[in-house]
Structure prediction request, 191 residues.
Amino acid sequence: AQQLLKSAQADENQSAFASNILDQVDVATNRLGDFIAYAKPAELDFAYTSLAVIFKRIDSLMQDEVTNAGINLECNTTDIEINCDQQKLLQVLINLVINAKQNCAKACIIELRSGVRNNNAFIQVKDNGAGISAELLPDIFSPYTSTNEGGSGLGLAIVKRIVQAHGWSISVESEPGVMTTFTIEGIQYRM
Prediction:
């Protein structure tokens, strides 16, 4: 399909067909990656990491994608360090931002923020998008549960598994048509 797309002799229909094949291969590859990530237990490499650095990476990695969708991404953090596996935490936050983006319309705001309460740090990903129905909310972290058509239903299950492997907890609060907030709590920190 890639060679057909590069071919100068391919007509418009052939190019569209080849492009469609490549898109479907990308979807299948992403789903396979989700299945592998869910099946494989999270092995963590703990180190103290600045939340400000993590949030800057998320902003750098995701800003173009959300901006192109007409969505604003706001990152607000306190300057603390948490003991975590930086790559796994990035995976968690990217999954939550992507999930929010998929459930938002243009002019939506996704806010990534952190703070300290009850002697622990917390991280929240909040959006003012479509929300999650009350019927789906209790199962939102269960495998194969998805609010997105064509989704694998593993993204939030993977998020929960990684969060729990860190010894933290994750919860969700949602009001359909108004907002959704995912909160990760119980995070040990240092200034």
Observations:
- The CA atoms of residues 45 and 85 lie 5 Å apart.
- The chain has a mean pLDDT of 86.
